[in-house]
Amino acid sequence: MQITDNSDMHEDAPANTQKHSLDMLVGLAVRNARAQAGMTLAELSAKSGISTPMISKIERGQVSASLSTLNALASAMNVPIINFFAETVEINEVTLVKAGEGVTVRRAGSTYGHSYKQLGHVSNDSQDLESYLITLEAPVTGTPIFQHSGVELMHFIEGELSYRIGDEVYDLTAGDTLSFDASVPHGPVHINSARARFLTVISRPR
C-alpha cells in the first residue's frame, strides 16, 4: 500500500487562502477607486500604461499586482497607493466612551486635587495608548512630579494652570496643547483658577 504524504499541501493552504483574500481586497479597492474616478478600464489603461486585461485581473483578485503596478494605477487615478491596502488592516481593539461616561480612577498625585476619568485604553503589539480627562480643583496642596516612558499630549479645556516640563514652566489656558517626552519630569505647579480641566493622551512602548 502506498501512503502519500499530504502534509505540505495542508501547511500551504492557509497561506494560499490568506494571499487570495489579500488579492481580492486590493482588487476591490482598485475597482472602487476607478469607479469613484469615473474611469473606464480603457481610460485607466491608457493613463497608467497598464494593460486592460491586467487591470481586469487585478480588480477580480486573480493576480498579485506588484507595487510598481499599483503605484501606476494610483497615480493615474490621483489617489494614495495606501488606499488600496486600507481594507487589509485588521482592527484588533476599539474603545468607545460615550459623552458623560468613563471610568473614574485614582492615580498618584491625587493629593494635588487630581480627578482622573479614563476615556479609553487600546493596545497593539508595540504600544499602549491611554486617554484621560483630568480635573484639578482648588484648593490644592503639593506639587506632584510625574515621570514615565512614552510620549504625552495634553489639550487644555478649561481654567488656567501653570505646568512644568523639565526646567520650563508653561502657563496654560483653554485651547492650548502641550506635547512632550514623558520621561522628562513633569507636573502641575500652580492652578490659577477655581478649576482646571484638560485631556491627556499617553502613548507608551510595550
Overall description:
28% of the residues lie in helices and 32% in strands. Helix 1 (7-37) runs parallel beside helix 4 (67-77) and helix 2 packs across helix 4. The radius of gyration is 27 Å and the shape is elongated. Strand 5 (160-165) and strand 6 (168-173) form a beta hairpin. The chain has helices at 7-37, 41-48, 52-59, 67-77; strands at residues 103-105, 114-123, 127-137, 151-158, 160-165, 168-173, 177-181, 186-191, 195-205. It contains four helices and nine strands, in the order H-H-H-H-E-E-E-E-E-E-E-E-E. The termini are far apart. It is of the alpha+beta class and 206 residues long. It has a six-stranded antiparallel β-sheet with strand order 1-2-3-9-4-7, with no helix packed on it. The chain has a three-stranded antiparallel β-sheet with strand order 6-5-8, with no helix packed on it.
In short:
With 206 residues, this protein is of the alpha+beta class. The protein has 4 helices and 9 strands; from the N terminus they run ααααβββββββββ.
Tell me the layout of helices and strands.
Blueprint: H1 7-37, H2 41-48, H3 52-59, H4 67-77, E1 103-105, E2 114-123, E3 127-137, E4 151-158, E5 160-165, E6 168-173, E7 177-181, E8 186-191, E9 195-205
Antiparallel strand pairs: 1-2, 2-3, 3-9, 4-7, 4-9, 5-6, 5-8
Key words describing this protein structure:
three-stranded antiparallel β-sheet; 9 strands; 206 residues; alpha+beta
